[in-house]
Amino acid sequence: MEKLKSEWFDWIKALLIAFGLFFIIRTFFFAPIVVDGPSMMQTLHDGDQMIVNKFIYQMHEPERFDIVVFHASDRKDFIKRVVGLPREHVAVEDDVLYINGKKVEEPFLQERKDKMPSYQPLTGDFQLEGLPGGYETIPEGHVLVLGDNRNNSTDSRILGLISMDQIVGKTGLIYWPLDRIQILHD
């Protein structure tokens, strides 16, 4: 009888440790997220299930073209691509991205552009000053994010700049559905 109690205690202890580790990993390191909507098409599809790396930005700042998850509201997280970084001026003219006046290629948009009619731009023209906040350059602690499906995305053009405090983490691993499993590269 004493041996049976000991085995049960060992099992309970193992389960509590496993749940504790799961809670710590889920809370501080990695979390699943499901893409909701078409705003990141062609890169991400509605229903793609991904892993968010929650600790990477504790080690370094976001980089241009990182795909990030951020709190858009108390109840809703969005997935978008970092386009503008602190101390930069961002503009789009004739579907060309300009950072501090220099043209920047966005190869991840080419497939989407190829599917658009030639007379319809993917990204409407804008300048940083015309976005909510009216900044001339992106302030420290903020980034400008855009969806890859630029003509159907609620992003910094509507929401304004995103504070680093709003960012949950970086994502780049699609694990479901099986035919979409991949690691995304910038």
UniProtKB/TrEMBL annotation:
Keyword annotations from UniProtKB, A to Z: Hydrolase, Membrane, Protease, Transmembrane, Transmembrane helix
Active-site feature positions: S39, K80
Keyword match Magnesium: no
Cellular component GO terms held in the UniProt record: plasma membrane
GO biological process: signal peptide processing
GO molecular function, one term: signal peptidase activity
Residue intervals of the Peptidase S26 domain: 9-176
Predominant location: membrane
SUPFAM superfamilies on file: LexA/Signal peptidase
Catalytic activity: Cleavage of hydrophobic, N-terminal signal or leader sequences from secreted and periplasmic proteins
Domain of life per record: Bacteria
Transmembrane domains' residue ranges: 12-35
Transmembrane in keyword set: yes
Its membrane topology: Single-pass type II membrane protein
Enzyme Commission numbers on file: 3.4.21.89
Subcellular location: Cell membrane; Membrane
Matches recorded under Pfam families: Peptidase_S26
Entry's family note: Belongs to the peptidase S26 family.
PANTHER family for this protein: CHLOROPLAST PROCESSING PEPTIDASE, SIGNAL PEPTIDASE I
Stated name of the protein: Signal peptidase I
Species, as recorded: Lentibacillus salicampi
